[in-house]
Amino acid sequence: MEVRINRFLSEAGVCSRRAADKMISEGRVTIDGEVACLGSKADEASIVCVDGRPVTKVKKDILIAFNKPVGIVCTATDKQGKNNVIDYINFDERIYPVGRLDKDSEGLLLLTNNGDLTYRLLKADGEHEKEYIVETDKPVTKEFIDRLANGIYLKDLDKTTAKCKVKPIFKNNSDKTKTFSIILVQGLNRQIRRMCEECGYKVRKLKRIRIMNIMLGNLKTGEYRYVKGAEYEKLLKSLNPEGRNE
Prior knowledge:
single chain, elongated, 4-stranded antiparallel beta sheet, alpha+beta, 9-stranded mixed beta sheet, 7 helices, 26% strand
């Protein structure tokens, strides 16, 4: 089956569709010896090359859920030894993170070798949920919770956050807490920290516990597990509910 060349390259694990479009525009991609253009198509029988090197499609899709520790950088290119997520995991195949979780935060991070899956997950920003547990420097109030839930204007980004689900987490029958859960459908830079700062709070601890149907669960810090079976199929169905062949 023929697919657009940018999708072919992303599914081969070469790069994202956006990065593929750039390489195609630069004339670095050929299909059966001919320079590809945006919109060109290729199939399993095509000989696709990037910078003269043949591209082999990934044989098996990999998606892992990783419990990122604080201090680990979510990048596949900035080599910082053990502080780089790729070097830290030291996976035996080429994978890269889907989106980011800032250095000071911890919790669920997805990594894959499938550029098309990465594209769909990032494209889904604004549609699908990500859940976090947040600890602040002082007790949360109803006013604070309501402000977060109804959207906050972030001066640095010149954007107002979308409405979201927020609730305090009480422990030991206490009527005060410094901890709350928040479910976002946005992915603005350091969004939760910025939202709290606008309300006069500082985040002491931030942990992501869910991305769509993928749960962090009891996964230990610094460890990963494969996302597969029914969990993986449910994720794919959520990303492509109508079975579209883009």
